[in-house]
Amino acid sequence: xxxTEQGFLLLTSHLGNPDRRPLTPPQLRLLTKRMAxxxxxxxxxxxxxxxxxxLGLDWDLSERIVALLEETEILEWYLPRARRLGCVPxxxxxxxYPVRLRRRLGPESPGCLWLKGDLSLLDAPSAALVGxxxxxPRNQEFAAQTGAQAARQGFALVSGNARGADxxxxxxxxxxxxxxxCIIADxxxxxxxxxxxxxxxxxxxxxxFSAQRALHRNRVIHALGEVTIAAQCNYKKGGxxxxxxxxxxxxxxPLCCFRDGSQASLELEQMGAQLIGLDExxxxxxxxxxxxxxxxxxxxxx
Length: 302
What we know:
With 302 residues, this protein is α/β, with parallel strands linked by helices. 44% of the residues lie in helices and 13% in strands.
């Protein structure tokens, strides 16, 4: 592992110690921005607090960054254990890191992803599925059809591996011979490897479930797909609503919602989502192309 990748791991991960204080996303974003102004250090160069202070960081943060980077002995224990459990880290400086995440989330993209399973799926065309845990019958059929159509059309299905829309869509995709990328919010190392499945965590491979993780991963699910499809959503509450609203606000990817007549779907349409039915699922590539102009406008440098 290159020194840059080790640095990302040391700065962004608990590395099995819940009391370790890695950088927050805003702190990492600030450090990345300031380090771009600094001459590239030698491979064996030592970073000192005074160098970071000279870039405009405060003393406490500068000392903390240097202290985190010095804890290399933790990696000597943590990484071999990860390999034995089949878990692989990919940092933002790694060429294998998903281009869509880096482009759409920018400095907000996770500093390190932990993966288990079929890593080749990172390069596969993909469509994301989100939705409520308790589905109405029509919405459940829509989630299942989304997964099956993804398989038939050569898209890996990106979802959150949670009860409801996620598992309905994932199971239908696998049953149709497809492939699934699960962005999880619980312990990665406990997942059983199976053909055509990739598990991804933006927390440590042994980090337990938390509600905060479940909410935070939504941006990764939306940004990793070429299109995001919402099977069902509660009006102005819950993770599906929050993730959809953030997607529409920041333009991660085109968002399509099931035309179920609900207040939530009608409100999301007003915010910029496209309402679709079962028939439109027959051409996911066309749905993904609806976002090309939208994305270009949002990210244009006027």
